[in-house]
Amino acid sequence: MILRGVLFDLDGTLGDHDGSVTTALTAWLPTVGLVADPETIMRWHDVAETHLAAWRRREIGYQEQRRRRLRDLGFEYGPEALDEIFAGYLVEYENAYRAYADVPEALAAVAEAGLRTAVLTNGSAPQQSGKLARMGLADLGPVWTPDDLGMAKPDPGAFRGAITRWGLRPGEVLSVGDRHDLDVLAARAAGLRAVHLDRLGTGPEDEPHRIGSLRELVDHLHT
């Protein structure tokens, strides 16, 4: 089956989420009485993944996962106060958000191959669309989130819902993302092709379709 489209993940794939988080926390943590040391930053990443996983399973709402992250850091306030505190972090995070340096080259290769592009991302629709706009990628293509699909990765239904809306068949779409569980295995379970973007070299060594940079994506666009 001929490849017709590339479905990109956003955070960790097109946008430097981890780097943006570190920059944001360094600026924000001291304003709320916490030290921006490596231990606290790692703690933030850990609690974020715990509660985002619960949200992906649809056990809690998106706003609630943010509140639980703050509670795990010791903030004992009501929902409105927690939302206000988190809003301060969001300002720093969104200001810090940047695209990876290898994105323009990869998108140029996709365009040269005559393929369509779209984004499937776990996150709120307004926030993720805002990130793409700040990176100059507002016109990249359709953007689908759990807000649109009613489910999140790694549910294969998220991929099926996205490509159905895109008007393509599973075998015509290549999923590209940094999370092997969310972007690769789940995509394949839905019938898509998939490439693992393993920027840190920590992914499964037996993954046959693994790249260390989006600059290597060109080698996977003509199969």
Automatic annotation (TrEMBL):
Keywords noted in UniProt: Hydrolase
Highest taxon of source: Bacteria
InterPro entries reported in the protein's UniProt record: HAD-like_hydrolase_sf, HAD-like_sf, HAD-SF_hydro_IA, HAD_sf
Gene Ontology biological process terms in this record: DNA repair
GO function terms (MF aspect): phosphoglycolate phosphatase activity
PANTHER family tied to this protein: PHOSPHOGLYCOLATE PHOSPHATASE
Full protein name: Putative hydrolase of the HAD superfamily
Organism: Actinoplanes regularis
